[in-house]
Amino acid sequence: MALRLTARSVFLPDLAFFANEQVPRLLDTHAPLAPAFVLEALSPRTADRDRGPKFAAYEEHGVNEYWVLDPDRLQHQFYRRDGELLVEFARTGEKIKSSAIRGFWVKRSWLNPEKLPSVRACLAEILR
């Protein structure tokens, strides 16, 4: 879904989550508001934009959490809102917990595309 934050700030995030109270404001053609959570998986073509203009726009327009995954270098960055800024969290540790999506978490090891765990193994841990 396209995010249209301003007339000149239109983005297509890899993954976006809207809280229940945001859903009534979604339009058939686009989202005219910032989602609660955005995830971008970097590629050589999009990395500069994801870390630059998108980051700035998401921060300015109220995204609560922004995850930037680098599948090539495995240098993932996780940001959450602290006042007006998106501040990095979870620099270390295996379990990354979202504050924007209640109950959502991933293990850092699950983010390695060369060693993906099975869906069954992930669900077994999540449902414990």
Keyphrases for this structure?
9 strands; 128 residues; alpha+beta; tt1808, chain A
Structure description:
The strands form 3 sheets. This protein has a 5-stranded mixed β-sheet. The chain has a two-stranded antiparallel ribbon with strand order 1-2. It has a single domain, classed as tt1808, chain A. The relative contact order is 0.13. It is globular. The model has no long low-confidence stretch (mean pLDDT 95). It has 3 helices and 9 strands; from the N terminus they run ββββααβββββα. Strand 8 and strand 9 form a beta hairpin. The longest helix has 9 residues. It is of the alpha+beta class and 128 residues long.
How would you concisely characterize the structure shown here?
This protein has helices spanning 47-51, 53-61, 119-126; strands at 3-6, 9-11, 15-17, 37-41, 65-69, 77-82, 85-89, 95-97, 105-107.
Topology:
Elements: E1 3-6, E2 9-11, E3 15-17, E4 37-41, H1 47-51, H2 53-61, E5 65-69, E6 77-82, E7 85-89, E8 95-97, E9 105-107, H3 119-126
Parallel strand pairs: 4-5
Antiparallel strand pairs: 1-2, 3-4, 5-6, 6-7, 8-9
Beta-strand segment tally: 9
Beta-strand portion reads 25-35%
Shape: globular
Instruction: Tell me the series of helices and strands, N- to C-terminal.
Output: EEEEHHEEEEEH
Are there runs of 5+ residues with pLDDT below 50, and where? none
Count of helices?
3
The span between the termini is: 32 Å
Radius of gyration: 15 Å
The portion of residues assigned to helices is: 10-25%
The level-1 CATH class: Alpha Beta
**Main sheet attributes: strand count, strand direction, barrel closure:** 5 strands, mixed
CATH topology: tt1808, chain A
What is the number of independent domains? 1
Report the mean per-residue pLDDT as an integer: 95
Biggest sheet, strands in spatial order?
3-4-5-6-7
User: What would CATH call the architecture?
Assistant: Alpha-Beta Complex
Structural class: alpha+beta
